[in-house]
Give the backbone structure.
Amino acid sequence: MIRVAIDGPAGVGKSSTAKELARHFGFAYLDTGAMYRACAWWCLHQGIDLDAAQIDEQQITETVGEFFTEDHFDISVDPDRPIVLADGEDISEDIRSSEVSTHVSRVSGIIPVRHVLIAAQRAYIAREASGDSFSQGRGIVAEGRDITTVVAPDAEVRVLLTAREEVRQARRSGQSAHGVGAEDVAKRDRMDSKVASFLTAADGVVTLDNSDLTFEQTLDQLIALVDQAI
Ligand code: C5P
C-alpha cells in the first residue's frame, strides 16, 4: 500500500495532477479540499451566516460534525468519478461556486472542524490498505494543505506542489470556463496558511515547483517519485 500525500496552495494544479497520478497507478484519489468545500456548502445550505464578523464557531462545528456522523456526506475515491454527495445529491459542481470558494476558509479555519475532517480523511486513507477497497490495497493519492504534515505525515511519498503566484492566478482564472470563477488565490492562501503550513515544505517533503512545467512534465516527475517508493 502506497500513500501519496500532496499539498500546495490554490491554483497550483493539485487536483488535476493528483487525479491523473492516481489513475496511472490504479490508486484511490482523495480531494480533501472538496471535503472542506462540502462542509462550507452544507453550512450555507443550513442557513448559517458565514459572512458575519463573528461567525458562530460552535454551531458550525456541530453542523459539520452532524454532516459526517449522521452520514449526510459521501465522497467517491474513484479518480474517474470523484463525486461529492450530500444526502445522496451530487454537489460536485455546487462546491466549486464562487460563493463556496470565498467562504470555505472561514469554515476550514475552525480547529475543531479540522479535527472532524482529519479523522475522516485518515479513515479514507486507512481503508485503502484493505483488499476490498477501491484500489484493492494498492494505494491512495490524497491532496490538500496539511496532508504531508498532519493527516498522513508517515506517507511513503510526500510532495509540496508549488508555483509562482502570478502563474497560479492565471491558471485559476483560466478555469472559469469550467465553473470555477476567477478569484483572489493569494487572499485565500493567506487565510488558509493561518491554520495549515503549506507554503514551505516540511522536513522530508519534496518540493516540486511547476511554474515552468507542462502538465505532463509535472505528472512525469510525480510518477518517478512514486516509482521510487514502490
Ligand atoms: O484544494 P481546494 O482549493 O479545493 O481547497 C478548498 C479549501 O479547503 C482551501 O482553501 C482550504 O480552506 C481548505 N482546505 C484545508 N485543508 C486541506 C484542504 C483544503 O484547509 N487539507
Summary: The longest helix spans residues 111-127. Strands lie at 2-7, 28-31, 73-75, 84-86, 89-90, 139-144, 157-162, 206-209.
